[in-house]
Amino acid sequence: MDSFHNSILIMAVWPMSQGIPAWPDLLIWSAYLAIAGLLLWQRRSLPPPLHTVFVLLAAFAVSCGITHAIWLIPNETSGGSGFKDWAKWGTAAFMTAFAFALLRVLPRATNSERDARKGDLARLRLLAAAVNASSDGVMIAGVGNDENGQISIVYANPAFEKLTGYSTHEAVGRSPSILPDHEAGPAALESVRVAMRGTETARLEIPSRRKDGSRLWIEWQVVPVTDDNERHTHSVAVLRDTTERRRAEQTIRESEERFRGLFEHAADAIFVLEPCGNILDANRRACYSLGYSRQELLSMKMSDLEGGYHVDELNPGETLTAENLYRRKDGTTFPVEIRFALLEASGRRLKFCLVRDVTRRRRTEQALREREELLRNIITHIPCGVFWKDRNSVYLGCNERVARDTGFKSPEKVVGLTDYDLCVTPEEAGTYRENDQQVVQSGQASMDAEEHLTRPDGTRITLITSKVPLRDASGTVVGVLGVYQDITERKRLEEELRQAQKMDAVGRLAGGIAHDFNNLLTIVRGNADLLRDLPEGCDTSNLLDEVCMASDRAASLVRQLLTFSRRQPVRMEVVDLNAVISGLAGMLRRLLGERIAIDIRLKSDRVTTRADYRHLEQVVMNLAVNARDAMPEGGTLTIGTDLVELPGDRVHSQTKRIARMWVTDTGVGMTDEVKGRIFEPFFTTKGPDKGSGLGLATVFGIVEQASGSLDVDSTPGVGSTFRIDLPWCEGVSNDLILTPFPVACPERRNKRAGTVLLVEDEESVRKFARLTLQGEGYSVVDVPDGDTALRILDTLPNLDLLVTDLTMPGIDGRELAAQVRLLQPEVGVVVMSGYIPDTGWLDDVPGSVFLPKPFTPIDLLRSTAKAMSRFNGDNGNKRDLTPELSSV
User: Fold this and answer.
1) Do residues 645 and 662 touch, judged by C-beta distance below 8 A?
2) How remote is the C-alpha of 474 from its chain's centroid?
3) What is the 3-state secondary structure (H, E, C) of 511-574?
4) Eight-state DSSP code of residue 291
5) Residues with Cβ within 8 Å of residue 140, at least 6 apart in sequence
6) For residues 621 and 738, is the Cβ–Cβ distance under 8 A?
7) CA distance linking residue 370 with residue 378, whole number of Å
């Protein structure tokens, strides 16, 4: 060994000591050693069969290096040629042994490696086939070793393409971040990055997008892959489409929530029970109805509620209903209806118990029984006949009144009979049956039909009968229900009162006409007296025009009276329907009374026709009176005019222009039977004092004489509309021209101050009275009606005198004076009227002075003075406001 070490040392230092340039040989020898070391190092990463081969190759490289060194040693340095020869033969033997060893080991190692590779390839093929056949997407991504290394896809199976839309060629080299839905937020993308770079198996489910942009949910199962040095080099991700699963899970959750909501918010108490009766679940209604909390109920049995109904044999799908009493937590009981059903859930059989509180139903049933008994008593004791029949007019039932009228002692005897069996005369039975069939077939009610019945004793009574269709639960007409009332005595009384009521109606009309006449006379006389007192040179035309206007209106009023008495000849002229209605407005308001409102709707254009002016006034008056009688409880009367264009017929192709006047009321209306007879002379459905039966007949004759037509629409309970169509005529009507109001009179001497509230609905009378009072120095506030006077009364705190008309629209003069006295007890009162009221009308206003119309200015001043003097006599503290009257 010493000689070997010496040889190595000689080989290392000899070239330099001898001055021989041996550096290339040294480099060759170093290369052999480096090859040997590299083979030994690479052996660690090779399969075990190749380890021996690489060791032998390394030893062979070392031997080659040694042999090269030996050949370079000189003989004299090595101690002679013997050592050098020995070294050469030893090296040759060693290298030959290595060569034989390599020839023996290398084929075995190669075959073993080849077999191992074949096995690995087979396993790789099986693995590839399994991955390709998988329905889940498989993706392998390489992970960068440095911190900035990018994650990129290196493999994707066919299912990956089907799942994401990216082919293997498109996916390889791209980042897995192409799969998460970026619109879902950065959290999904970040979770993918963390899972792919992580060294632990990860599972995540994120919203994703396909290549075409469609959305889906993907479940990622990420497994990290390391090399032999335990470095994380790749990540394998198994992708599964969970969209449908999530939808199914969402559907199940919604279904569970929905059914839970139904369970919790059900109107009835619901229990889920074990077969032994233990309560497993209860809804809110159960807790509320019984007063227990849910936890308390879950610790109880159904029998604890004293409402448990033991059910031994109950098959799935079957139900059982029972009634019982349940006891609340506070000890009170209530009736319930219990319904049991058997449920199977997760292999367990549970009882489903629905408990309904029937307290209200029991009360309703009791109320229905009581109501039925009440209805039976009402039908039995009502003072009317009540009956019901089938479609063939066979009696199904009636009350005792019908039985008595037909000669039977009890209603049961009438059941099963017909009117032919009950009636004395076949004509009456035929009439009843005909009316029954009309109601059954039309399905419409027949109201207030007047019929006659002959009793078995021969007495004949008058009935007013109403019949309505009798329907079953489906609405099908199965018969007729009728009610009648005996009006025999009422009709006799109506006939006796007819004449007296007619006279009362005439008196009311006469009173209204007298009021209008006295207003006109007041205007004439008052303006005449004012003309007498005017100084010389004063313009008298306005006062004279007032006198002429009043005279014309009086003549018109007389003409209306003559028309009503049919003493005026027919005078055809061009008439404006607007003027006719406007001229009658004041009289209509007094004639109809305060309970009926009048609405006048006139066409803005002139509505002219050729007719008798007085006759048209009579038409309006008759229709207004007819409407008043149809509105006994009050209502609205609407009168209007219009111009109508009617299309031409086959003979006259041009359009026809019509002057139309219409009158509408909100009264009781008429049936078709009554409407067909209203124009017959002496036919009337009104009370005895409501007319002679000639009003509408007269209207029809006047309209027909003027070549016009009359149409009527009426609905029972709604009202009636009369439309009068007259031929339109072009021309100018002779309308009355109103003169201007008179001017104020000059002031008189010896005047004193005082505030007077003047209330008069007739404008001319009001102006005349105001001028008279102002002429005597009064401060006058004039208004047209009592309602306006009450509204402005607060603005007159120092009112001294109230001068009011007695008859006005709305509140009358008596009521106005009484209310003014309540508010200001020291006010004097003068009441004006066109007719003398009944005794006691002014008792509510003590100390008042009555001034009849017509009156002169001096009459008005004397009345005011008298009222003031009476007032001053009652209250000495009031200042003297009585004017000093000038001589007239």
Assistant:
1) no
2) 28
3) HHHHHHHHHHHHHHHHHHHHHHHCCCCCCCHHHHHHHHHHHHHHHHHHHHHHHHCCCCCCCEEE
4) -
5) 153, 154, 155, 156, 225, 234, 235, 236, 237
6) no
7) 12
In whole angstroms, give the CA distance from residue 527 to residue 742.
8
199-242 tens-digit pLDDT: 888 888 888 888 888 888 888 899 898 887 788 888 889 988 88
- Over range 514-525, report the average pLDDT: 77
pLDDT for res 32: 66
Peptide bond into 854 cis (omega under 30): yes
Radius of gyration in angstroms for the set of CA atoms belonging to the chain, rounded to a whole number: 62
CB 790 within 8 A of CB 802: no
Distance of CA 271 to the CA centre of its chain: 37
- Amino acid, res. 556: S
Chain centroid, CA 89 distance in Å = 120
HSE-CB of 138 using CA atoms within 13 angstroms: 15
Helix (H, G, I), strand (E, B) or coil at 60: helix
Instruction: Beginning with the edge strand found earlier in the chain, give each strand of the sheet holding 446-454 in spatial order.
Output: 395-398, 385-390, 477-486, 460-471, 446-454
The DSSP string of 638-693 is EEEEEEEEEPP-SS--S-EEEEEEEEEE-S----HHHHTTTTSTT---S-TTS--S
Helix axes 488-533, 857-874, angle to 10 degrees: 100
The three-state secondary structure class of 743 is: coil
> Rounded to 5 degrees, what are φ and ψ at 223?
-125, 125
DSSP code, position 793: G
Strand order in the sheet with 137-142: 152-156, 137-142, 232-241, 215-226, 202-209
Own/partner pairs, 12-21, CB within 8 angstroms, 24+ separation? 14/73, 14/77, 15/72
Distance CA 834, CA 832 (A): 7
Residue with structure tokens 């009484």? 818
Burial of 556 (0-12, 13-18, 19+ CB in 10 A): middle
Whether residue 97 contacts residue 75, with contact meaning beta carbons closer than 8 Å, is answered with no
H or E element: which one contains 287? Answer: helix 284-290
Average pLDDT for 241-265: 83
Burial of residue 176 (CB within 10 Å: 0-12, 13-18, 19+) is buried
Element (H, E) at 635: strand 635-646
Closest CA to 467 of 395, 389, 374: 389
Q: In DSSP terms, which residues pair with 348 in a beta bridge? A: 345
The DSSP annotation for 379-422 comes to HHHSSSEEEEEETT--EEEE-HHHHHHTT-SSGGGTTT--HHHH
Q: How far apart are CA 428 and CA 461, in angstroms?
A: 12
CA within 13 Å, CB half, 244? 2
Could you read off the pLDDT of 616-650 as tens digits, one per residue?
887 888 888 888 888 888 899 999 999 988 776 54
Which pLDDT band, with edges at 50, 70 and 90, does 437 fall under?
Answer: very high
Asked whether the CA dihedral 390, 396, 402, 406 is positive or negative, the reply is positive
Q: How far apart are CA 67 and CA 96, in angstroms?
A: 13
Q: What are phi and psi of 135, to 5 degrees?
A: -80, -15
Q: Identify which of 177, 128, 189, 169 has the alpha carbon closest to the alpha carbon of residue 152.
A: 177
**Cα dihedral sign for 851, 854, 857, 859?**
negative
pTM for the predicted model, two decimal places = 0.33
Write out the H or E segment, with its range, that includes residue 585.
helix 577-592
CB 512, CB 586: distance < 8 Å: no
Burial of residue 408 (number of CB atoms within 10 Å: 0-12, 13-18, 19+): middle
CA–CA separation, 122 vs 128, rounded Å? 10
Residue pointed to by tokens 């299912």? 159
Locate 886 and state its tokens. Answer: 């000038």
